[in-house]
């Protein structure tokens, strides 16, 4: 089954404790991206990747890192999480930029 | 800053009616436009995309694009309660996809 998976689905952590949210797709897509979704602000792009070893900032990259060492994986790293990063995070992938497939989401709470 | 504006709603329509969802944008360089549907607690799923001025129909859904006026709309004919969701407009300019805040649609039986 073609899909985008994210782990964990739910995470509660404390300020400053490094964490990684994994994203994996099995569709051989070149393009992958991360979004955060907040009430009243909609979906905002954090980072995107056009292919392996090619990443670029989206609208809200501050406080986040990404890497794209393999085509299927695009982890999101929070080196020192803060409460303002409490949000719902989505990973997405596509072969062409006209149809992005979204993962199920990761709900992160930073205390 | 690319901006995409949507009325947050809720837009309430009776079952069987036409629901009209609208979106305006500020970036004239936008190339492609998308409508996503998001059920509460779920991830967005693509309904339609449109590149050219005019209408594009797919089943009960019609997307309309007017680049001169900078708006894109989605019409849902014969609305069903299962269409109740938040509809997100998005535009692609360069390599970045920018979303609007979404319009919540409620279809009442």
Describe this structure as you would to a colleague.
The complex is a heterodimer of chains A (111) and B (109). By secondary structure, chain A is mostly beta strands. Chain A is globular and about 35 Å long. In chain A, 0% of the residues lie in helices and 51% in strands.
Shape of chain B: globular
Mean pLDDT of chain B: 92
Task: Count the DSSP helices of chain A.
Answer: 0
Q: How many β strands of chain B by DSSP?
A: 11
Distance between the ends of chain B: 40 Å
Identify the overall geometry of chain A.
globular
Number of helices of chain B: 0
- Which sheet architecture does the biggest sheet of chain B show? 6 strands, mixed
Show the helix and strand layout.
The complex is a heterodimer of chains A (111) and B (109).
Chain A lengths: L3 E4 L2 E4 L5 E7 L5 E8 L3 E10 L2 E4 L7 E2 L9 E3 L8 E8 L6 E2 L3 E5 L1
Parallel strand pairs in A: 2-11
Antiparallel strand pairs in A: 1-3, 3-8, 4-5, 4-9, 5-6, 7-8, 9-10, 9-11
Chain B lengths: L3 E2 L5 E4 L4 E7 L6 E7 L6 E6 L3 E5 L2 E6 L4 E6 L8 E9 L2 E4 L3 E6 L1
Parallel strand pairs in B: 2-11
Antiparallel strand pairs in B: 1-3, 3-8, 4-5, 4-9, 6-7, 7-8, 9-10, 9-11
Q: Which properties best describe this structure?
A:
heterodimer; A: 111 residues; mainly beta; 7-stranded mixed β-sheet; 4-stranded antiparallel β-sheet; B: 109 residues; 6-stranded mixed β-sheet; 5-stranded antiparallel β-sheet; 57% strand
Concise summary:
The complex is a heterodimer of chains A (111) and B (109). Chain A has no helices and 11 strands.
